[in-house]
Every structure is written in C-alpha cells, then in structure tokens.
Amino acid sequence: MYFNPGFTPGFLLPLKISTITQLLEMKTLMMALAGLFFSSATLALDADQFEAYIIINKDTVRGHIITNDLESVHLLVNFETADGKITQYKPGEIKRFAINVLEQWRRYVVLDLGQATGAKDTGSTLVFAQVISDEGPVKAYKYRCYQNKSIYSTPGDLPSADQRGLISETCLIKGPEVLRLQRTSVFGNTKKKLREFFSDCPTVLASLNNVKNAVDELPGLVRQYNRCRLRS
After folding, report:
1. What are phi and psi of 155, to 5 degrees?
2. Domain contains 1
3. Quick one: which of 134, 121, 145 has its CA closest to 172?
C-alpha cells in the first residue's frame, strides 16, 4: 500500500506508509535530542561553574558544580565531570563534596536532621551541610532546608494548615548535645540558648555580651570555645 495525497509531482516518488512512519519517528527523536541540547545549553548559560570535587564510593571525582545560587546546593547539586557529563546528586547519593569559591574551598557533608528536609515531605531527612568547623569539641554546620510552618488565624488558635517553608539554620554539635538555631529566631532567645551551650567557657560568655548578631558571629564563637576547652 502506498500513500497518495491525490497528486504525484514528477520529481516525487510514492512513499510507503512504513517509510513515512519511520520519518516521523526520526523527526520526533531529533526534536527530543534538540530539546536536551538546548536545556543543557540553557543550564550552562544561566548558571555559574565552580571548581569542585565529590566523594562517591570512596573515590574523589573532580569537575565542576553548576548553580546560579550557592544556597541551593544543600538539597541538590549538579555536578559536571571533566568529560562534560552532568549528574544530579541528592544528599546520601554522595558522601561529601567541596566547592572552590573565590579561591576558598567550602566543604559540605551529609547531616541527618531527623525530619523531612525537602519542599515536599518525601521522607528524606538528609541535607548537604556546609562545614563551619569540624575540629575540636564543638562542630558547627549551616544549611537551608524546608520545614513545616503552622499558620494561625488568630493568636491562640490551633494551626489551620501546614505549609513547608525554606529556612536557614546553623547546627552546633557537642558530644550528644545538639543545638539548632534559625536565622529568624528571636534575638534574646538565641543568646540564651548559646549561653547555656557555652556555659563552661567564661571567655565565650563574655564575648556573647558584645555581639550584635549571635548567629552571624557563630564561626568566631565556636573557634573561641574550642580553644578554651583545649587549653583547660
């Protein structure tokens, strides 16, 4: 059987239906490949490339992390190998990674927060946390993740709904003791928690009285505390 549109110009031979089907399938394939090409090109144009390495299966793989927002790498990273292959990794799929930002290496490890961290509660409790300090009695990390936010119609009412919002958080770990501080925490309450956490170092307690934003000053406070404890 042949496809005949009703006329056959002298330069056009009749085509079999199977041939037309193959041509259509090839056209669909070419459009799909073009879409992949342009989406990859768009990613490269819209985002920055940072020198990086990842640790996967005990191997160190060097390449680049592609992102237009360094604050977005806590839940997903786009890693490009030397041969141009781009792979997305979620926390747990790689153990840790590091990014070179203005000749300063930022290290990230996987933390289990014990609660859902994604925009949707998919069950994952992991996050890529940037290392602030991992040497000494107190280890400190910072990250962004999603948490449920209760909405109240009027003060004192029970929550009318739960929505997930993106929050910035710093986590301090001292043995079995864990302190998590959100950037939006009440100023006085944050200082109170830190005084309790650093209660065994008078030097840090004195410094806390002089800082304006305790969360911003945490890297220095942690280093000061670790020096204090190592000398004692």
Report:
1. -55, 135
2. no
3. 134
Are 40 and 84 within one domain? no
- Are residues 144 and 201 part of one domain? no
pLDDT by 10s per residue, the chain, length 232: 333 333 333 433 344 445 545 544 565 545 555 554 444 444 444 579 999 999 998 899 999 999 999 989 999 999 999 999 999 999 999 999 999 999 999 999 999 999 999 988 777 999 999 999 998 999 999 999 998 865 434 444 444 445 788 899 999 999 999 999 987 655 568 899 999 999 999 999 999 988 888 888 999 999 999 999 888 6
CB 131 within 8 A of CB 143: no
Residues 183, 215 contacting (CB under 8 angstroms): yes
**Domain identity same for 161 and 202:** no
Of 127, 125, 73, 69, nearest in space to 98 by CA: 73
- Provide CB contacts within 8 A for 71, sequence distance 6+: 144, 168
> Whole-angstrom Cα distance, residue 166 to residue 153?
21
Q: What is the DSSP string of 107-118?
A: EEEEEE-SS--S
Tell me if 8 is assigned to some domain: no
Instruction: Classify residue 214 as exposed, middle or buried by CB count within 10 Å of its CB (0-12, 13-18, 19+).
Output: buried
40 domain-assigned: yes
Domain extent for 159: 47-168
Would residue 5 count as lying in a domain? no
